[in-house]
Write a structure and sequence with these properties.
Cytochrome p450; five-stranded mixed β-sheet; 20 helices; globular
Amino acid sequence: MKLPDVSHIPPFLQLCQWVADPLSYMESCSQRYGEIFAGRIGGKFKPLVFVSNPQALQQILSNDTKEFTAPGELNQILKPLLGSYSVIMVDGDRHRRQRQLLMPPFHGERMRAYGQLICDITQQAMSQLAQGKAFSARSVMQDISLEVILNAVFGIYEGERFQKLTKLLGALTDVFKSPLTSSFLFFPSLQKDLGPWSPWGYFNRVQQQIDELLYAEIQERRKSYDPERTDILTLLLSARDEAGEPMTDLELHDELLTLLFAGHETTATAMAWALYWVHHLPEVGEKLLQELDTLGDNPDPVAISRLPYLSAVCQETLRIYPVGILTFPRVVEKPVKLMGYEIEPETIVMGCIYLTHHREDLYPEPKTFKPERFLERQFSPYEYLPFGGGSRRCIGLALAQFEMKLVLATILSRYQLALADQRPVRPQRRGVTLAPAGGVKMLAKGQRQQQEQSLATTVR
């Protein structure tokens, strides 16, 4: 049986639609072709198979199958941002080794140790907002998440070098804040340096400044190596391969870039969406505040993270508009039957996170924000997958969820905010992710009176 193919639309127009409005592209194809279809949006317009059936996703993403692999070379669109030696870009043994090195800081006691830091950084950022003046929720969330990941990666977030790095990383990610500027990632022919005032020229110069700061930090930390430190850079400096060789400066640089970008950009977007939904739907905000107030004056960060309704709000935020709308691509290794179709070797297959999250059979009224759905039932890793799945599942998902809950709890418990505009906020492309158009404009209305002490000062 032949695979459904979006062949009635010229490939170049498909790619343009994919860049400009990926949700419209996917939804229109899904309505016409169903749970599996081939769209021509890849390099040289090769067909890419989109899948949103949970059983098929399990077949694709399962670590037990040899039918599909996830070669890093398929993620070339990210190379300008992350380099060639990122854990996202490498394959096989190198990918497994680097992934194992990066996992520990994002789990267990080491991750929970970030709890107080997250609350303190959140309070500091919110205290600087002028009352009654509009601000971009996403920009503030980006400041918070970047400081958190800088601390996790380097063990510190103060000093001139880190202030420069914070500013430059924000500037670099903002280059791709709209569908128009995101097109530079999808059309390599646009990646031309025509001077500092050209988009790609500006990108190159900001990136060069970031490179200089990262290499300076690597050299400094090599000279003053302290094995007692527990930050990620120290762990990477300690790593040795099978031949006993350490990671090169280039490898360290690309890995640090990956952690800094992936560790703050996506989390900032998710937190901005959460603030939007909680204030767009007052009944959700009120219910959440009632739950937060049950913790008393000295809540523990872990206790906060286990609150059921807070967890459901964060889960629903990541369901309705997942930051990453596709899994990393897989390639078919040998002829395989998928949903009744014979898929040939070298075919590229991607799990469609967004379409899976909007299945009527799994999520009734999928366009409606309803946290209660996560209190009423549990979803499998192939029905709900905001962090992807399989061997390429996001390493930082535990920290991202922990941070999201603590930031939201700290803000709502201490501050009164309001949306500056009551019109619905729509998602739009931001690089390879999905973000709220306009960044969610909000107003700071002062401190919340119901609870005099904030979580940020009482979590000890």
